[in-house]
């Protein structure tokens, strides 16, 4: 399996006002033409505002599929169309959707080697900036969440780089299946435990599943 980095996006946190509230966020990321170095926890010159709920080694890179932009623009009918990277993603990808990739899958991305750790969990920041209070529910219901990566090997990444899967996790639990467990669409305790047993799953995400077992 291989996909592509359609856009590599970074931004240091700043104070933002949206939907009547003010908050500190790195959401308004800017597409980069030049290579950017990927460290264990972040891209160079990138950051998150809420370090309690975002960031760290298990959420070093946020990926969002390019394929969803046309769908959202058709469904939301906003005054201004959503353009990359409207979901605050570091990597806008193509050909690597949630039902095709698994927790623990390993990819070569430029010089870096990365691993899928968990689905991206939509938050109030996203809903506020897009100015749609229903956006969190829409993302959950559609499963268009995106996902996070940890960095196994640091290195330079560039827009246009291929994302080549070098290891498929033997459990084969997709990001979509993980979302279904997280949000209660899948209630089978055996499947929940199978996910909990995936050691590559982000630890904070694993703890959030404990109440389901």
Describe this structure in words.
The chain is α+β, with helices and mostly antiparallel strands and 213 residues long. The strands form 3 sheets. It has a 7-stranded mixed beta barrel. Strands 2-3 form a two-stranded antiparallel ribbon. A two-stranded antiparallel sheet has the order 5-11. Helix 1 links the parallel strand 6 and strand 7. The mean pLDDT is 95.
Largest sheet, described in full? 7 strands, mixed, barrel
Query: Helix content range of the residues, please?
Result: 10-25%
What spatial form do the alpha-carbon principal axes imply?
Answer: globular
Order of adjacent strands in the largest pleated sheet: 1-7-6-10-9-8-12
- The count of β-strands is 12
H-E order: EEEEEEHEEEHHEEEHHH
Using the CA coordinates, give the radius of gyration: 16 Å
Using brief descriptors, characterize the structure shown.
213 residues; alpha+beta; 12 strands
Summarize the structure.
The protein is α+β, with helices and mostly antiparallel strands and 213 residues long. The protein is built from six helices and twelve strands.
What's the helix and strand layout?
Layout: E1 2-10, E2 14-18, E3 21-25, E4 30-32, E5 36-38, E6 61-65, H1 68-76, E7 91-94, E8 106-109, E9 112-119, H2 124-130, H3 135-142, E10 147-153, E11 155-157, E12 162-167, H4 175-182, H5 189-196, H6 203-209
Parallel strand pairs: 6-7
Antiparallel strand pairs: 1-4, 1-7, 1-12, 2-3, 5-11, 6-10, 8-9, 8-12, 9-10
